[in-house]
Amino acid sequence: MLFTITAGKPDRKKQIKEALPFAVWSGIAFVIPSALVVPFGQEFPSIIGAVIGLVLVLLTTKLGILIPKNIRSGGSEEKPQRTLSSFKTFFPYALLIAVLILGKIFFGETNIGIPFALDHQFNLFNPGFAFFLAGLPIAFAWRSKNKKIIREPLGKSVKGSINSFLIISCISIVVQLMVNSGMNANGIPSAVSLIAKSFETSFLPFWTPFISAFGCFLTGSATVSNIMFGKFLEISSKAIGMDSAKILALALVGASAGNMIALADMLAAEAVVGLKNRERDILKGVIVPCLVYLVFVGTIGILII
Fold it and tell me: What integer pLDDT is reported at residue 231 of this predicted model?
């Protein structure tokens, strides 16, 4: 991030040197709490770990620890107008975390079967529902006379999720067809098995982050990238005797890094700041940090697997 933020600055090296301790501390403050809460569930590191990391960084910032000597701002120096109290600002996040934790404890092992002889079950605890359970009561309780406070955000959310829903649904259908294509009368291997053979190499841990990042570049979503390549990587890792859990973890990290170069994310960022047709310039600015990050992750993968 420092490499990207300081791009084009005349005193770039000086800025990076001053801000590096704070950047490293911010990463440590997030990574360690996230790692500690992993046993409680895969949903919690990005939520509880982020909250704990934010609190730690805020405390050290208030105390003046590891803060750069010269504070620079890329935006307006005017203080934003305060429209909500601190309680109303942070209570929804606290409620969401509570719902996630309680749901994981009480409904994490509860499954509901699908009728009509389909061999599949839905887990009663779905993190997506936690956002509705936490958000809707807050919206109704704190709504003002303006009825648009609920209708407009809900409408925008539904419209914004239609394309993602259709894309993920179609890709999921294709993946399931490829996975189950081996169930045929002629004994022909499944498409997934055939594709997975091309990934069966001792350098699989190194290339896994690059494969997932490329998938994210094409689709604009780490979720869709994992759907596209997750099954291939799992089968390949098992075929050559590698830990599939670690391979899929590397894939997830690589897909997350791929968000830097995802075209869909670039377009969204351009819309926020009011730019158009600057994808090439953005890609030039982020491709080097992305590749360095992927090489670092791939090297770690080779060492730990």
Answer: 81
How many angstroms separate the Cα of 280 from the Cα of each of 26, 217, 221, 267, 288?
30, 13, 19, 11, 13
Distance of CA 27 to the CA centre of its chain: 16
Say which range, 13-27, 29-43, 71-85, 290-304, has the weakest mean pLDDT: 71-85
Q: Give residue-wise pLDDT tens across range 135-180.
A: 878 877 776 556 666 777 778 777 777 776 776 677 677 767 776 7
DSSP conformation class of 226: H
Q: Report the range out of 26-30, 91-95, 155-159, 267-271 with the highest average pLDDT.
A: 26-30
- CA gap 304, 296 in Å, rounded: 13
CA–CA–CA angle 55, 126, 95 (5° rounding): 35
| The two three-digit tokens of residue 4, written as one number | 């990207």
How far is it, in rounded angstroms, from Cα 219 to Cα 213? 10
* Segment holding 37, helix H or strand E: none
Q: Are strands 121-123 and 111-113 parallel, antiparallel or unpaired?
A: antiparallel
Burial profile 168-204: b = 16 or more Cβ within 10 angstroms, e = fewer: beebeeebeebbeeeeeeeeeebbbbeebeebeeeeb
Token reading at 136: 């809707």
Q: Give the pair of three-digit tokens for residue 110.
A: 């509860």
- C-alpha R_g of the chain: 23
